[in-house]
Write a structure and sequence with these properties.
alpha+beta, Tetrahydropterin Synthase, Chain A, 32% helix, Band_7, Band-7_stomatin-like
Length: 433
């Protein structure tokens, strides 16, 4: 038997044969063979946004809806977002769904809740809707807030200001919110935090070298002085500058100084000043370059001291000039946070003609000294001979011994044989020799 079925324009028909879904009947008049109750038609209004049916899975897999409906098949561990006319309306769990797309515009998106964080181009709307509240943990950070996120007891990310969402259906999420009231960041898990891929976007890592001090300025004002070591600063919190100051002993070479002495002799000299930073803040604050300022001050003092000293005095007492240089620089250096340890003249270079003149003067002095020494030695020798002659004259026995010593000395070098017989023979031999 044939049965006429009329389907309106805002309806569709579901044709079942032996209680199994057969096909979709579009709007219009249809004749359906209903003998023995094998075929039946269910008329469904498309004004209802979602098609709900006990055989929805078969209907969705068998029917060809075209643009008439949106089919959604949501797998395990996934969620489907459904927008109707641009407004988020539904969040769907695992299952099969059909939404009529005839009277209202229906769009969808599948999200994987196995991911730790929920990434979406319009995350703020998702959070505001409240439809995902039972599935996600929301982190909303203000401008001076940062957060550390642990997922399943493992550090996952460090977050800057903004809104974030994390799936908590399959993960254990723990969030630590940090107020960035201090520029410096310290944490018991610092080493692990710095290994995160996102750490380089949130932190500046600064090393203050051994033997140095770090002078920290925050927003243009002095904040603190840091000892040697590693420090971690938040990015995008405050403007800061860190000046590293070497606290070790340093040497300042003052080279190539052409200076005229009091007696109008121009000489070139190289000096050295040894200093040490004792106040890192003053060293970094008072002058743009305190070392360069010390160089200029030492240069001027050196010119003044040499300019009022004669060449001979200068060459004979360079140590005095070095001591005066230290004394004159001491007070000025203290203004820059420095302490002068020592100073000295390293090299003195005289003009060519002056060097020749000094060499001749030195040569004459040395020759005179050598001549004087020679005369002194000759006088001493003559005086010794006179004393010996007087001694021998007054002592004949000593004279005889002297004669015998002379003969012994002669006999050692020759084959001379001397026979002493008659009296006076020895005297004749001595006179002959």
């Amino acid at each position: 038997m044939l049965k006429r079925v009329k389907i309106k324009k805002d309806e569709v028909g579901l044709l079942f044969k032996d209680d199994l879904f057969e096909r979709i009947l579009p709007p219009g008049t249809h004749w359906v063979w209903t003998a023995f109750g094998s075929n039946r038609v269910e008329v469904i209004s498309t004004r209802e946004q979602e098609l709900k049916h006990e055989q929805i899975r078969e209907i969705a897999s068998e029917a060809e809806f075209g643009d008439l409906a949106v089919k959604l098949e949501v797998d395990a561990h996934k969620k489907a977002l459904v927008w109707i006319n641009g407004k988020l309306e539904r969040v769907l769990d695992q299952g099969v769904y059909l939404f009529w797309n005839r009277l209202k515009n229906v769009t969808s998106q599948i999200l994987d809740e196995r991911q730790t964080d929920l990434v979406h181009h319009d995350l703020a709307q998702l959070i505001k809707s409240g439809l995902l509240d039972e599935y996600i943990q929301v982190v909303d950070l203000k401008d001076r807030q940062r957060a550390l996120v642990w997922c399943d007891e493992r550090l996952f990310a460090v977050l800057s200001a903004g809104q974030y969402a994390f799936w908590r259906t399959l993960h254990d999420i723990r969030v630590e919110v940090i107020e960035t009231t201090s520029l410096r960041f310290a944490h018991q898990d610092l080493e692990e935090i710095l290994t995160l891929p996102t750490a380089k976007d949130e932190f500046d890592i600064v090393e203050v070298a051994q033997g140095c001090a770090g002078v920290l300025y925050q927003n243009g004002k002095y904040a603190e002085t840091l000892n040697s070591g590693r420090y971690v600063f938040w990015k995008r919190v405050d403007k800061y500058q860190l000046f590293q100051v070497d606290l070790r002993e340093s040497h300042l070479d003052i080279v190539g100084q052409d200076i005229m002495t009091e007696d109008k002799v121009t000489l070139r000299m190289n000096a050295i000043v040894t200093y040490q930073v004792v106040d890192a803040v003053r060293f970094a604050t008072i002058s743009e370059s305190s070392a360069q300022a010390l160089y200029r001050a030492a240069q001027l003092v050196l010119r003044e001291l040499v300019g009022r000293t004669g060449l001979d005095d200068f060459l004979s007492d360079k140590e005095s000039l070095a001591n005066q240089l230290v004394e004159r620089l001491h007070k000025r250096a203290a203004d820059w946070g420095l302490r002068i340890l020592s100073a000295g003249v390293r090299d003195i270079i005289l003009p060519g003609e002056m060097k020749d003149l000094l060499n001749r003067v030195t040569e004459a002095k040395k020759a005179a000294e050598a001549n004087l020494i020679s005369r002194r030695e000759e006088t001493a020798a003559m005086r010794s001979q006179v004393n010996t002659a007087k001694l021998l004259e007054n002592n004949p026995t000593l004279m005889r011994l002297r004669e015998l010593e002379t003969l012994e000395a002669i006999s050692k070098n020759t084959n001379l044989q001397v026979l002493l017989g008659e009296s006076g023979l020895a005297d004749k031999v001595v006179k002959m020799l």
